[in-house]
Design goal:
Order of helices and strands: HHHHHHHHHHHHH
CATH topology: Serine Threonine Protein Phosphatase 5, Tetratricopeptide repeat
Oligomer: single chain
Number of domains: 1
Strand content: under 5%
Helix content: 40-55%
Shape: elongated
Distance between the termini: 74 Å
CATH architecture: Alpha Horseshoe
CATH class: Mainly Alpha
CATH superfamily: Ankyrin repeat-containing domain
């Protein structure tokens, strides 16, 4: 054991212990209903389901510091993925990690990606985590880091081979997640790596530009248009990006999209 690094190892093991106790946490996702637009972005977090669970969860913090290290310190102990978790490959176990490096469990890696903890994500990748592994909602590290606009983490994942156009269980891609926000560097990175801009989800037929329009993000709408976004696409209710913007009170964005549509119609004559 490298005694200089044991405080970090202790912290990491304690965190793993806490997450294992919180398997009923659920990462929310963007709205899958037109009536629920605009998307409540603040709901995409890991939260206990009940006050009782919260009490149990937070009461384990001190215990985790003592028992987590013992549990994780055994080099022969294998990490077992939660039964409900759908994964592309099993997470790398602590005993499989390079010497002096502790493998980051996937459930910790995906929360790190969500919150922009780049170093934790990088360590997860370097100790064997598949960049295309999915959580129980079909979400990848790239999707959740894109959702919160963590462009540095997004770049790391892309460099590690994260697939751009993987769809979650609702049929949504990293670009759709990113387009609900305002982080231009993240969206630009995805587009530069040739993310497909006109894919639609599997439930409501929403496209990336519909997500952006619903949130009133004009700069994002413009960027998507510059990269070939099709504003003639409609969802299952026959509503376009313009209507998404207008119905949610984003009149400037709606009028902008209307003018683009009119210009396209004139140029096609």
């Amino acid at each position: 054991m490298d005694y200089l690094s044991w405080p970090y190892d202790l912290w990491l093991c304690a965190l793993a212990f806490q997450v294992d106790l919180a398997l009923s946490f659920k990462a929310c996702q963007p709205s899958n209903s037109a009536q629920e637009f605009p998307i409540n972005r603040s709901t995409m977090t890991y939260r206990p389901k009940s006050s009782l669970f919260k009490l149990a969860y937070f009461s384990t913090l001190s215990l985790a510091g003592l028992t987590g290290f013992v549990a994780c310190g055994d080099s022969e102990q294998k990490e077992k993925p939660p039964a409900a978790q759908k994964v592309a490959t099993s997470p790398t176990m602590a005993s499989e990690a390079p010497s002096n490096r502790i493998a980051i469990p996937f459930n910790i890696a995906i929360e790190a990606a969500l919150n922009g903890h780049e170093e934790t994500v990088v360590q997860a990748l370097e100790t064997g985590t598949d960049p295309n592994q999915i959580d129980d909602g079909g979400r990848t590290l790239l999707m959740v880091s894109s959702f919160n606009g963590h462009s540095k983490t997004v770049k790391r994942l892309l460099d590690a081979g994260a697939k751009l156009d993987t769809k979650d269980l609702s049929g949504r891609t990293a670009l759709m997640y990113a387009s609900t926000g305002t982080d231009i560097p993240t969206i630009s990175l995805l587009l530069e790596h040739k993310a497909q801009v006109n894919l639609v989800d599997g439930e409501e037929q929403f496209s990336a530009i519909m997500f952006a329009a619903a949130e009133g993000n004009k700069e994002v709408v413009e960027l998507l248009l510059q990269n070939g976004a099709d504003i003639t696409l409609v969802d299952i209710d026959g509503e376009s990006a313009e209507l998404f913007a207008r119905n949610n009170g984003h009149i400037e964005v709606a009028d902008f999209l209307k003018s683009i549509s009119e210009q396209n119609q004139l140029s096609s004559k």
